[in-house]
Each structure stands twice: as structure tokens, then as C-alpha cells.
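User: Second chain of the day. Same drill as before.
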Amino acid sequence: MASTTILTADEILDFYAEDVAFVAEAEATATTLATFADHLRDSVDALEMAGFEADEAQVVAQYLDDALAATDPAEKQTFMKKACERIGFVGDMASEYRDMC
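Assistant: Same format as last time:
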């Protein structure tokens, strides 16, 4: 089983925030994980209308919310790992959606 690289908040934002903001029709690209999680939730309808299975965006948003709320470092890392295991797929959907427009 391949190990998952746990991205930092800055890496997540650098890699994915611009495409997700485009899909979410956000006024600005997220600069925090909390805003990024909001943009993920806001992108679900647009992705589904374009034919994507967008439930994964909701899942990643929830894991990020859970990581932000966690007070225990190990718990925070667990939620970040779970988010990172799925975020690549969500990023690919957002990028593909952007390319279609």
C-alpha cells in the first residue's frame, strides 16, 4: 500500500485553491483552509451539473473542517491525511471543469 503524502495548508492552497475557486465562482482564491473548505462545498453543484461525481469534494471539506477543529496534533494529522488521500481526485475534477469552460 502506497503511503499518502500529507500536504501542508500552503501546499493545498497552492495546488488546488485557484481551480476550486473558479468552480465555486468565488470572488477570490482561498487563502485559508477554512475558506478553501467552503469553496469545496460551494463547488459541488457546478461539478455535478457538469457530470462529475462531486461527493468527494464534500468529504474533503469535512476532513479539513475536522482537522481545523482538532486540538490533538495526532488527530489533526489523521484528518489532514484523510483529506490528502482524496484531494487529488477533487483537484482533477476542478481542473477538468475549468478546462471545459
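Residues 9-100 form one domain.

User: Great, on to the next one.
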